[in-house]
Design brief:
Layout (H helix, E strand, L loop, with lengths): L19 H13 L7 E5 L6 H14 L3 E6 L4 H17 L5 E6 L8 E5 L8 H14 L4 E6 L6 H16 L4 E7 L1 H8 L11 E4 L5 H14 L3 E2 L1 H11 L3 H12 L7 E2 L1 H25 L3 H11 L5 E2 H8 L3 H13 L3 E3 L4 E4 L4 H7 L12
Parallel strand pairs: 1-6, 1-7, 2-5, 5-6, 8-9
Antiparallel strand pairs: 3-4, 10-12, 11-12
Length: 375
């Protein structure tokens, strides 16, 4: 039997849990027409919380309503790809007539002739004109266009500024256009501080976090049973608890639990224990290492100083371990909260947000700590 779980980034899971309201809200914004706040939406959160999956869901909501979708990533050349690839192709397909034709072959004595499409020889328009034309065509048919952009980052702010200005004009003109984007918290925060990318500040912003363990248990049980196997309630709860509610871990734990003995009908407690252990070994390279790679050495030292504690850490204790004053420690506290790696846990305390980050930091502490510098 094929393993139903899909621990690959950006791949929609077999059962999406804990995000139904957000999916419905975005669909409703398309139904509500121009001016609906959800027609510009941002999803942010740490790695593994399902940002790209939410983009997939937004795109699916648009397609169900007959909308066209452009799905992109904020890599260099974003606007060029829009104006030279995506939009010209969609305009070619939806202009009336889509293309002219000319006779390209013939024959003697009545044998069949052949025809060839002639390329549109109109000069290439810029982004704004292309979007205006396409949304005008779509509006006549009661549909619209969704632009989806993943991995938004200030390093790509030039393209995002240009796209944002055009989207903003389209919204003012009440065109049938929607925008949805996703990025890591620090990257999105940097973009929102950019005075030029103003339309993002007015977008609906959703910070994705863990989902409830009851939902997680359902996300494990249903794919197992729909694939012809069974798992007990206690085993489901144990597997769910091991995920900490993180969507990527749901798939990673489920995948490893399933593959312990895929030929057996029933998943046992031993299967769950072994699968959880295997998932914990993998989470470091798949999620934790990339999350820490975005940080400065001092940020990582701060986290290692927190990892000494078995539970929430006092800011004063962390500052003492680092040999710095409270003001210096507070600067990095705010940076790490914005990065969604730690969260307030009561007055003067912090705790980790990501499952197994404490254990990972303890195992790799020697390679992460740098000498502190008093400020």
């Amino acid at each position: 039997m094929r393993n139903p779980f899909r621990p690959s980034f950006g791949v929609t899971p077999p059962l999406l849990v804990g995000r139904g309201d957000l999916v419905e809200d975005f669909g409703a914004s398309l139904d509500d027409g121009p001016g609906a706040p959800g027609r510009a939406t941002l999803y942010t959160g740490a790695r593994g919380v399902g940002k790209t999956v939410m983009l997939n869901q937004a795109e699916e909501q648009a397609r169900r309503r007959g909308w066209l979708v452009i799905s992109e990533t904020a890599t260099p050349g974003l606007v060029d790809r829009l104006t030279r690839e995506h939009l010209p192709l969609l305009l070619h397909e939806h202009r009336d007539p889509p293309a002219r034709r000319r006779l390209s072959g013939g024959s003697v004595a009545g044998v069949s002739v052949s025809w060839t499409d002639v390329a549109d020889d109109r000069p290439e328009d810029g982004l704004r004109r292309q979007l205006e034309e396409l949304t005008g065509i779509l509006a006549d048919h009661g549909t619209g266009l969704l632009i989806s952009v993943d991995e938004m980052h200030r390093r790509r702010s030039g393209d995002l500024r240009e796209l944002g200005a055009v989207v903003q004009h389209a919204f003012r003109e009440e065109r049938e256009l929607a925008f949805v984007g996703a990025g890591l918290p620090a990257a999105v925060s940097d973009l929102l501080s950019d005075d030029v990318v103003t339309f993002l500040r007015r977008a609906d912003r959703h910070v994705l976090g863990p989902v409830s363990l009851d939902d997680v248990a359902e996300a494990i049980r249903v794919p197992v049973e729909e694939s012809g196997r069974s798992i007990g309630d206690e085993q489901c709860r144990t597997a769910a608890a091991a995920t900490g509610g993180y969507p990527f871990l749901i798939q990673l734990v489920g995948h490893n639990v399933w593959r312990r003995h895929p030929d057996r009908e029933h998943i046992t407690a031993e299967d769950v224990a072994d699968g959880v252990a295997a998932a914990r070994r993998r989470i470091g390279s798949l999620v934790l290492e990339p999350s820490l790679a975005d940080l400065s050495q001092i940020d990582r030292s701060f986290l290692v100083a927190m990892a000494v504690d078995d539970g929430p850490s006092r800011i004063g204790d962390v500052a003492r371990r680092l040999g710095v004053n409270g003001t210096y420690a507070s600067q990095y506290r705010l940076r790490l909260i914005n990065a969604e790696l730690v969260e307030p846990a009561g007055y003067g305390r912090l705790d980790f947000t990501m499952p197994y980050l404490r254990e990972y930091l303890r195992e790799h502490a020697a390679s992460m700590v740098v000498p502190p510098r008093e400020r």
